[in-house]
Design brief:
The complex is a heterodimer of chains A (about 300) and B (about 260).
Chain A lengths: L5 E3 L2 E3 L3 E3 L8 H9 L4 E3 L16 E3 L4 E3 L8 H16 L5 E5 L4 H12 L5 E5 L6 H4 L7 H14 L5 E5 L6 H10 L4 E4 L3 E3 L2 E2 L4 E2 L6 E4 L4 H14 L4 E4 L5 H9 L4 E4 L2 H5 L3 H15 L5 H7 L4
Parallel strand pairs in A: 3-4, 3-16, 4-7, 7-8, 8-9, 9-10, 10-15, 15-16
Antiparallel strand pairs in A: 1-2, 5-6, 6-14, 11-14, 12-13
Helix pairs in contact in A: 1-2, 2-3, 3-5, 5-6, 6-7, 7-8, 8-10, 8-11
Chain B lengths: L2 E12 L2 E6 L11 E6 L3 E10 L2 E6 L3 H7 L6 E8 L9 E7 L4 H12 L3 E8 L8 H4 L4 H4 L10 E6 L6 E2 L2 H11 L4 E5 L2 H13 L4 E4 L18 H6 L14 E3 L2
Parallel strand pairs in B: 7-8, 7-11, 8-9, 9-10, 11-12
Antiparallel strand pairs in B: 1-2, 1-6, 2-5, 3-4, 3-6, 4-5, 12-13
The chains are: A alpha/beta (about 300), B alpha/beta (about 260).
Chain lengths: ~300, ~260
Amino acid sequence: MADLTCDFLNLRLRNPIVLASGILGTSADLLERVARAGAGAVTAKSCGPIPRVGHPNPVAVDWGHGLLNAIGLSNPGAEAEAKMLVEARERLESLGVPVIASIFAGTVAEFGDVARIIAAARPHVIEVNISCPNVADEFGTPFAASCESAAAVTEAVKRNAGEIPIAVKLAPNVPDIGRIAAAVVEAGADAITAINTMPGMVINAEAGRPVLSNRIGGISGPALKPVALRCVYQIARAVDVPVIGTGGVTTGRDAAEMLMAGATAVGVGSAVWTRGPEALGQIAGELAAFMEQHGYGTLQDLREVMRVQ
Amino acid sequence: MYETFAITEIRDENYRAKTFVFDKPLSDAQPGQYVMTWLPGVGEKPFSIAGHDPLMLMVVAVGPFSEAMHHLNVGNRVWVRGPLGHGYKLQGQHLLLVGGGYGVAPLLFLAREAIAAGHTVEVCIGARTMAEVLLAEAFMPTDFSSVNPLKSAKSVDKLSITTEDGLLGTRGLVTEAVEVAIQARRPDCVYACGPTPMLLALARQCREHNLPHQLSWETRIRCGMGICGDCELDAATRQAANIPAGWLVCKDGPVLFSE
């Protein structure tokens, strides 16, 4: 029997499959539903300092090889989010499923403020979203674009997060993601989540315009997987912290590939569109079956297979 | 991805509702499912499917998007993704359909499919005022065959109309007509679509009578894909109607089965 137990930071996950931020993480009920459906851990949707309604519809489109979305960081604000996280953490405690918070902000100082408010809710990890591609009009270039800005946010969050470990979520569209990873680890990141969606555009030819109201959105799903595998591979060789490898994982086989690239845990998001909230538990089951079929006893065996070649 | 549909006919249903008939069928559509309709440059909104062959959507002018729809003409195109969500399932022999306000649209599609499949169908329509009664003619036993694409001579067994102003049909609430209908002939399943207060009352009523029911819930739909989480119903509504926690209107619903 393959062992799916996943040691991530100070946590022991029952399996490495983690609900990615931005998918179904808007309420304690939904986080609980995904946990009950078999996730190893769940990540809430990103919250910022104040409530946001996000972009008008269309906000998401299936373009055939993945999704493109620009929800626009809709969230209830850090104070309301903290209450939700407390409830979610209490409910998921008996299931043994950790809750990862996710935060964003427009300035380094605001990142610190949001981190302080969210840390008070005692999530197991705080993920730092410095890479949302869909709010450039308001927030400018994502902090994930340079080592300096990524490190500055990391430091501010780390200073305000107390003892709660932080995972910094990186963007794929940078020249050298290994350098950004090294910069955030140097600045205090305990883990890295890689990657956020890749900026893209879907144009409807008949309409003669972009589909999303925001025009530009983030590519996710199968089209993103090779990009994510490359990024995780480069990050795992640049730094020595655990990585939640996220991007296009739809099956247990995809999850195995992500672990082979060097991920410690595996984020799943867009697969919920095609497979429902049950996707996470199903992917964990498929991963176990793959490991058994191919003689892998533990997740560490998968992580090491590419190193010895 | 979107498929484009061209408008072939526009019917005025009442002072603020129009039915749009399109140039082709919507594949694999079930009654109770919905589509997301995109007007480039305007926005995207959900509409329940009033008919699938050809596609028909009833649009009530309540905001900028639906008003833009009302300005469209025959020949104009709309962009549609769907069918989305889970719709009604035919259950038992005698079916009672309950529509409140503009919730009647998916029931027209359901009535056609049910009658074509050999079920007997009784319909209760409710509205606040006579002016807001919708699709009554389409459900009328005498006229039903004329809008039935199957050209079936069969029709609904009985149609009851209830208005709060009493100017059309019986004065009162649709749930009163439902009570009369249940007493006269117990249905095997109750199907409904309408405003939340009506659905809550009906859910209570069906539980009291121990009747299976399939209710279509309405809320703001954002992604329509079951990923953004925006369409969860509020806690009070969920508790009042025994709706499971974390139930997503856009993907698990909009129709929820009582059993």
